[in-house]
């Protein structure tokens, strides 16, 4: 499987994402600069964390207007996996690929520590390796991770089982303790916590590796079905 | 040339922790009459005049300047007078 890690000016978790995909997972991966890029030959898109464009205007807002995001939208429409972590999640909501918005943390401070998450939906292509209700430990590192959506959207998220991860101890004020959501079609996942920083025991947790392994396993299975 | 001033505010009902903190600090300073503070953004755009100016500015707000999920906006247009 071939992953593209999209790099914007101000991305700073791109190398962690690359390391997870290439060295820990052992798949092919490239760091892809956001300008003059061509995503056609990639099977999966990884939008890393950081502060794209210095968080100017709103986090993720400027990156969402870039040409590479138009290509990510095409990729998403084709049903290929797109994972946005932290700033990547903010870019996905700003570009309309996921509903809602990420606002300033309730207590206004930047937070950087491990959080316990509950796997709410283990039937997505990103989470089949987990058990439903399983508690996993991922680090968080954000100042604007307070997920907000209106009541109508929330109802829809619940009805379609789009809430994939929730916080056990909500650190940032997110609606319904939401830590990660998926689109209706089930191939675009956005989350504030960092699975790519939890892929080796030496990092404090390797719970995030299962997420990447799930993507690869499900991609392989669907690939063999469609190309057999 | 026109000067467009855009005001972006958080929707009513959307929590504004920064505004809440400002209100509390004003109260601490003795301005007890302040019951609420909401923080927003103010932008000035210099825009070439055109037939669809207002429509274009609305489009700019919807596409980039404001996030309709959490924010409302309004704007004023005035003529730039050269001296």
Account of the protein in words:
The complex is a heterodimer of chains A (228) and B (83). Chain A has one domain (2-226): 3-Layer(aba) Sandwich (Rossmann fold). The radius of gyration of chain A is 16 Å and the shape is globular. In chain A, the strands form 2 sheets. Chain A has a 9-stranded mixed sheet with strand order 2-1-3-4-11-10-9-6-7, with helices on both faces. Chain A has helices spanning 14-24, 67-77, 87-94, 151-159, 209-227; strands spanning 2-7, 28-33, 44-47, 82-85, 101-103, 111-119, 135-142, 146-148, 163-167, 178-182, 188-191. With 228 residues, chain A is of the alpha/beta class. Chain B has 83 residues and is an alpha+beta fold. In chain B, strands 2-1-3 form a 3-stranded antiparallel sheet, covered by helices on one side. Chain A binds chain B through residues 57-58, 61, 65, 93-94, 99-101, 103-108, 146, 148-150, 173, and chain B through 14-15, 17-18, 21, 63-65, 67, 69-70.
